[in-house]
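Holo prediction. Input below; ligand is iron/sulfur cluster.
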Amino acid sequence: MFYEDRELNEECGVFGIWGHSHAAKLTYYGLHSLQHRGQEGAGIAVTDGKKVRDHKGLGLVNDVFAPKDLDELVGYGAIGHVRYSTSGGNSLANVQPLVFRSQTDTLSLAHNGNLTNAEEIKRDLESKGSIFQSTSDTEVLAHLIKRGISHTFKDNLKAALNVVSGAFAFVLLTENELIAALDPNGLRPLSLGRLGDAWVVASETCAFDLIGATFIRNVKPGEVIVINDEGLHSDMFTTEVEPAICSMEYIYFSRPDSDIEGINVHAARKNLGIQLAKEAPVEADVVTGVPDSSISAAIGYAEATGIPYELGMIKNRYVGRTFIQPSQELREQGVKMKLSPVRGIVEGKRVVMIDDSIVRGTTSRRIVQMLRDAGAKEVHVRISSPPIKHPCFYGIDTSSSSELIASKYSVDEICEEIGADSLVFLSTSGMQEAIGRNPAMKNCGQCMACFTGEYPTHISPETALPHEKDLLVSKGG
Ligand code: AMP
Ligand code: SF4
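Structure of the complex:
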């Protein structure tokens, strides 16, 4: 399998609502608040009890939906999706929700995460006659359900959820049901809320705040929730569960105003900064954070050290995330366009520059240079996560291990590479403690795989690239 193929379903956001006459419009607002999870495509499917209609397109939520599109999406149940993909996967056929119409019914589905055994399942299904419409890994779930041998849709769904492996937060919509399901490790966040009599599910709680819904609880790992006109019914599709939510959701991805399993993301990031200050203090004049995701950690670091927090650089709001650029050259250019130093703040100063993570090293290298060009006397880099040494197979674009700077170089070598005066990463135990999840759980209920190589699910050697295989130290991996 090509690496690009494996990365078709990255960092997405899902939303669902049941029992509201403005289901599509509320989904549209919900998707707006999840826009940071994917900017390359968006879609909504809606049901009025008889028919499922959908509208989707490439681009931002605002670009995809005109008021007339939303007016046409009539119904009281809806699901929506925002999509992030890397090169190779950005075609309209892969934009979700995927909709499968048969003579008797319609199934639409949207997925956040990445299925690690999709290729094997696909090959098997194709050999049995299935024809796939997209190159998305998500489609295998629909085929597995359709091929199910039980009499009920729900039993076929539960069976299918036991065949797929990896990370999945699914929302599904039929003419008369909304369904939400989460993988046995709960790798991606998924929350349940209420808006009056309507039920709402969303990748992040910030979507509830925007539409005025109340958070009820998190969807549990291994749980499948079916919502229809009779109410909500919860069931487990497996009892073999082991919570391992993605650490990067706290560190980088989720919005600071979201709560993940009862922990506010801004508060977690601030604690990461406080912990970093304990582990790696330094004599300096100002602390600055890479906007936006590192500002909370920088505030924490400043508070704990007593060094003032300053706006040492600002972000140009109108440039997309640099990470999304498919080539290294474009990424380097992207960083330049994205951030500008505030000369008056950094000139002649010893600066502590906080970033939430180093992946390829592009951002840190550029920023250190930028701060020096603006007159900084010293630049000390502090990272509020441990070094990312292993690739992610669960839907986060942390690249192939050959591109991960920490898989090739030691911390001292990275420091030299990015041109900093000093560099320290947060420890893994410090990271877990600062986020503050349940210490009684394995790894505090977090996935730590990109830092430690200990994957919470089996990763087949086929999923890993040849040069990544020796980096797999997971269960049976
Ligand atoms: P790099 O420049 O490749 O070292 O990437 C690190 C920068 O990208 C940091 O500033 C992070 O905030 C951000 N980042 C980390 N992981 C990701 C990711 N998976 N997708 C997009 N951006 C990321
Ligand atoms: Fe998140 Fe890293 Fe685990 Fe991927 S490997 S799910 S990025 S913690």
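Residues 158 and 237 are 5 Å apart (CA to CA). That is the main takeaway for now.
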